[in-house]
Amino acid sequence: LSRNNLAVLHGCIFTEKCQACGLEHFRDAECGGMSFAKTGRRCDECRQPLRDTLLDWRDPLPLDDWERSQVECERASLILCLGTSLRIEPAAS
């Protein structure tokens, strides 16, 4: 399933994102870190630092994923929510 078809609202332990160009790097192992900490690796494209994508309680939801989720939820006849307790707002609503 392409990342373009997913809305990852609370981050992913296997994904790093370039702080400069926005390119996501999916790994086979956990990236480590939380709350957009630098992972120590660099982007394959622009060589700028990568950051983890896992949100902490105080971090805002990623706007692009949040907007995509709103549009797709309105269009969907079935919604699969995986790996969540559905207790954290605003996604729980």
Quick rundown:
By secondary structure, this protein is α+β, with helices and mostly antiparallel strands. It contains one helix and four strands, in the order E-E-E-E-H.
Give an account of the 3D structure.
The chain has a four-stranded antiparallel sheet with strand order 2-1-4-3, with no helix packed on it. The protein has one helix and four strands; from the N terminus they run ββββα. The model has no long low-confidence stretch (mean pLDDT 89). The two termini are 25 Å apart. Helix content is 14%, strand content 17%. A hairpin with a 6-residue loop joins strand 3 (38-42) and strand 4 (49-52). With 93 residues, the chain is α+β, with helices and mostly antiparallel strands. The longest helix has 13 residues, at 63-75.
Count of helical stretches: 1
Radius of gyration (CA) equals: 14 Å
String of helices and strands: EEEEH
What order do the strands of the largest sheet run in, or round the barrel if closed? 2-1-4-3
N-to-C CA distance = 25 Å
Features:
93 residues; alpha+beta; four-stranded antiparallel beta sheet; 14% helix; 17% strand; globular
